[in-house]
Structures are given as C-alpha cells and as structure tokens.
Amino acid sequence: MTELRKGYLFGLSAFLLWGFMPLYIKQLHDAGSLEILAHRVVWSVVLVALILAVLRKGRQVVALLKKPRTVAIIAFAAALLAVNWWMYIYGVNSDRVVETALGYFINPLVTVVLGVTVLRERLRPAQWLAVGIGAVAVLVLTIDYGRLPYIALTLAVSFGGYGLVKKRLNLAAAEGLLVESGVLAIPCLSYLIWLTSTPHSTFGDHAHTTILLVLAGAVTAVPLLFFAGAANRIPLSALGILQYLTPILQLALGVFLYHEPMPPARLAGFALVWLALIVFTADGLRTARANRPTVKQRELAKT
User: How many angstroms from the chain centroid is the CA of residue 123?
Assistant: First the structure.
C-alpha cells in the first residue's frame, strides 16, 4: 500500500470515528459531562504514555518539557481542547447532536476569520463571500433557536483556536497530545478523586459505564493519531474535504436516529452553511490547482 493510500485510510478512519462519537457519548448518559471529560483526559495520558514508552520516545517528551514557553502555549491549546470536548459532551447528552454538527460545519469558516483577525491574512473575494453567507446562516439559526447557537459557536471557535495554536507549534502528534493531556491531567484527576467521595460518581457503579469510561482514552487518542497520520501523507485540500464527513454523520445521527427536530427555518440555516462551504471549498480547490507546478516547472526544479 502506498503512503498516499495509507493517508486516505487514516483520514477516513479518523473522521468516521469522530462522526460516530455521539453513539459512544450517549452510552454514558448516567455520567456528568465533567466526569466524562476528566476520564477522557486521564485515560488519554495513560494510553499515549504507553505508546510513547513502546516507541521509546521519552527523550523527546523530556526535551519538550524543558521549553517553558512552549509548554505554556501547549497549556493554552489544552484549555481550548478541554472547552471543546466538554461542550461537545454537553451538547450530545443534552440532545443537541444537530447543533454539535453545525459547529463542525462552520469550523472552517471560523478558522478563516481567525486567520484574518489573528494572523492578519488577506482573504480572496470568494472567501469573504463564504464568510458572509456563514454569518447570515448564523443569524437565521439564531432566529430559529430563539438564541445564539452557542454550542455550535463554542465548538467552532475552540477547535479553530486549537488548530491555530497547534499549527504554530508544529509538534509531533503523540508527544504533543501527551503534554496537552498531562497539563489537564492533574486538575482532572483531582476532580475524579473528589467526585468519588460524593454520590455523583458513576465510576465503579456499573461494569458497562466503568468500561466505557476507561475506554475514553482510546476513543480520544486513536482518531487524533489517525488524523496526524493522514495530515502527514495527503494534500491539505483533500484533508479539508474529508473533514466534512464528521458533521454529515453527526447530523444524520441527530435527525434520523435521535429524532431531533429540523424545522424549515433550521434547515434553511443549514442550507446556507452548506452553500458557504461549497463556495469556500471550490475556491480552495481552484487556488490549489492554479498554484500547482506544471510538468515543465517540476522538470526545471529537478535540474
């Protein structure tokens, strides 16, 4: 199997696992959102530490920890990721799977806005059009919900910010994930220890829930590692298109499996989001083709 095919396989696996994540979260309806989040963090640390120990990459982690400024930035990324995970768990367990899907649909548009506001990037006219359509979509959905779709917006902004920080750090996937999870592990473990002294802890009450909480580490780490494997092997444009698989699956689960409402106004809002994404994706693909070197240019580069 070629590296390119491996990349597509890794990417497809990652986005499929994320797309079906509501099925896993729904099985933990007895546990609170913070308890699920804390277990995701703690067991992720255990799993990734074991993987790095097997791969004998402890020195890379130690070297990373000797850079206080980098660790501080990683801590900020970890906080954004924790907000994203918690809001996602809360959204799924409060029967708002459709709204969580919306968050990941609009995430690419939020990423573009962050590029303009934080990195001072200049947008092409088609990108401005996509962002404008996305803004109208949020307005339509706000009117439909009777409130801002805060779950969707929080998911999009937190994950967009996390991606921006990770891009600037440019760390290896496993080592970065271990340090990120490690930063959160101490408060999360402290919370879980405190929770066991209250009647609200579900860990150990039922075998089904306990096993699923332990597996939270694998459910968290495996798709992230698959995603890293894909990002290193396939073009960014292809990865960007594959990512839409996740919210499509989540939307389908919310509407057809969990029977969440999709009134005409909400459907219109989603349709505007999809239109914005079509404009955004088409512009990205057209730009990528225009910037692709010709055969003659590649031959000259080799000489």
Answer: 24
Query: Where is 119: in which H helix or E strand?
Result: none
Q: 250 exposed, middle or buried (CB, 10 Å; 0-12, 13-18, 19+)?
A: buried
CA angle 155, 158, 159 (to 5 degrees): 80
Q: What is the pLDDT of residues 172-184, one digit of tens each?
A: 667 777 888 888 9
Distance, in Å, from the CA atom of 219 to the CA atom of 103, rounded to the nearest integer, reads: 20
What contacts 225, CB < 8 A, 6 or more positions away?
A: 51, 173, 174, 177
Q: In degrees rounded to 5, what are phi and psi of residue 171? A: -100, 155
**Distance spanning both ends of the chain, measured CA to CA:** 30
> pLDDT (tens digit, 9 = 90+) per residue, 25-59?
999 988 989 999 999 999 988 988 888 888 887 78
For 102, 225, 282, 292, the CA distances from 235, given in Å and listed in that order, are 25, 17, 15, 12
Q: Which residue has the higher pLDDT, 31 or 164?
A: 31
Continuous H helices in the chain: 3-19, 21-26, 33-55, 58-65, 68-93, 97-117, 125-145, 150-169, 173-196, 207-214, 216-231, 236-242, 245-252, 264-291, 295-302
What stretch of H or E contains 27? none
pTM above 0.70, yes or no: yes
